[in-house]
Amino acid sequence: MSWSLDTLPPELFRYILAYLSPEAASALAQTCRKMNAITHDDKIWQQYFFQRFTYVVRKIDYSNEEYLSSIAQKPFKLPDGYTWQDCFIERSFQDKHIRSLLNEIISTRKHRIHNANLISSTYGLLALDAFKHYFPPSPHASKSISLDSRNLTREYYSLEIARLISRQAGLALLNDMKTRQNIPTEGKALLNALFIIQCFHPDGILLQLTRLHAIGKRLVDDPMFSTLNLTEKCQLILTTMKNESFLPANGSTEYYDISNSFLFSTFHGKPTIPLTLVSIFCALAEECDLIARPLGLPGEVMAQVYQTSASNDTPSVLIISVFDGKIMTLDEINDRLADFLDEPLTHPLPVTSILELISRSARNMINSITQYPTSSLNSYGLYAAVCVLKRLGAGALPFTFDSMMHVLKEHFPMDIHLFDILASPLGTNADDLQRIQEQDANPPIVELKRREDPSPKYFIGQIFQHLQYNYWGVICGWDSSCMASPVWQIRMGISNLTRGATQPFYHILADDSSRRYVAEDNIDTLAFTCIENEENKLAIFRRLCAADSIGKQFERLDMANAKFIPNLELREEYPDDFA
Amino acid sequence: MAGNKIKLQSNDGDTFDVDVEIAKQSATIKTMLEDLGMSEEDDVIPLPNVNSAILKKVIQWATHHKDDPPPPEDDENREKNLSDISSWDQDFLKVDQGTLFELILAANYLDIKGLLDVTCKTVANMIKGRTPEEIRRQFNIKNDFTPQEEEQIKKENEWCEEK
């Protein structure tokens, strides 16, 4: 008897099905009745669903039981009468809609803000699955995609919208927290609260916290663990944290760095502040079945730890300075803080509320911004601090409304819900919002930059090296003479240049992501061709492709000709450059 | 124990001498040897579900793959990679469909994961990227839908269009 595809035993057929993409299974279903019946195997469609989709809910509510980052990805039960195939097909249609909206956003300024917010409000976290294939490749990606096949504009917009979605998730969680009566303080609660702040980070909600599950499990699975007393267990957790690179920041520059307030840097090995370390300690303690709560003391947040034994005596408590790696008894901490406390601490110890701690984190961020005004994370930190302090009603911000709005609107032009958070003292929010929406619906016509004699020497997209400061950059625009203010010209010493202000000036994007304005005399486009080492050339390409917002103006890198190809919008503005 | 051989017998009576280590790539045979205490010297292992031609091919595959590391745990949640079939395996599997399916059945019966994987991947590759009509032609499948049924099925699968 000759075997064929439709006579194979069902379990073998299922084996083959597991190797097919859902699209191929669909094509197979359309061949004959038997194939149609066999491919309706819902177990396979469940597998297809979880192979393709990670996020299963649009939004998450605050929880202290699970890590917030993993709630959106928890396996779920199907509603009655619904098959996995139904689920899969529905998501596929949603996916397609999301991607068509993204294409609209990329190809035209009209309704860009509206569409971005439409994706966020309609689909929320589900859109992250649609976008994940479009994100810029991570620097540690195993399979590296060739630089000139990357669609930089699509990378830019998919990332920007994902960040928008992440920020809105953070806001929703803040709202959720505010309405809850009693937020518990032990276990994962504090870490989850800090995760809300993480939502405002450029890497946003994509940060996974489940690594802590694995660390905790390893501790608990060790048979020796249950034989340890409370002090020894705490010591083991402290040591483990050090080994896992959850370290205290040293020196004031490191200490006041705004990245300390975001979990992202901590989980990537950057030493951090007590508040963050305590949150990780408490989460790990919970994994090990201990009760740990934050304890906000003058100058430092510490942890208080109890054992969950059913003992009738007053439970012994340990107070842990996670930052210093010191474990103390009640007496020892009272000694240490004698000068700072009005009265010695006694049982039961006060527990600092989660809302208080998250506000504390916001104030830390404000401090960092004030101390280091040029950090690239500052706009994200400001956004987070504003949302936390405003939503939780936790005090005034030290900046004026105008200065904050200026920064936030510049960096987050699509976030119209900023108007819900920051009330204008002059009551102009509604007008401003309306103006933005009108401009979004009818974008003003961009003034064309036509080349006239004498024409600027260089073109949009060219890669160059700055003659004086030696950094590499790409040309994003030009003016036939210097259009900057006289103050700027004096500050930059423009009159010292050979041709002064009466030469073409170029808007450029440098390889450190900064945008600058450069005189033609300082532009060297031949430098690149003089590089002999291919690796060095590639490194320059890579750095430029990794510059923030390169995709806002450029669609692709043309490696052969050492230039970037402008996207539609830029081509429209400079029609003569792209002849 | 190098060089120890075992005798495998196909369902049509042919016997093949095979190195024990090579034969043990089949978890079924491995179980028979270890758990059922079959001695390695004189006994003949009968394989009633495999004919001579197929058994010969299986032995050929197992011999070539004898030094392979054990296959990794299946991750259900990763879309499978269909493009990592070695060129030797590709040549080995340039056979008619009947043989290909018989190899799948044999690999399943003998529980040889590597062979099962590569044969199923090969079939999957024959389906992937093809329209229903092309798949029918490839596998000689008769279209037994009524026109209305066909319309209906097409509609159900509309979600696939323009990926």
TrEMBL record, chain A:
F-box domain mapped to chain residues: 2-48
Matches recorded under PROSITE patterns: FBOX
A GO molecular-function descriptor: DNA binding
Pfam families given in the database record: F-box-like, Transglut_core2, YccV-like
Name listed for the protein in its UniProt record: F-box domain-containing protein
Source organism: Adineta ricciae
TrEMBL record, chain B:
One of the Pfam families matching this protein, by short name: Skp1_POZ
InterPro entries: SKP1, SKP1-like, SKP1-like_dim_sf, SKP1/BTB/POZ_sf, Skp1_comp_dimer, Skp1_comp_POZ
Gene3D superfamilies: Potassium Channel Kv1.1, Chain A (3.30.710.10)
Every SKP1 component dimerisation domain range: 113-160
Superkingdom as given in the UniProt entry: Eukaryota
The UniProt record lists the keyword Transmembrane: no
Region named Disordered: 62-82
Keywords for this protein: Ubl conjugation pathway
Entry similarity comment: Belongs to the SKP1 family.
Protein's recorded name: S-phase kinase-associated protein 1
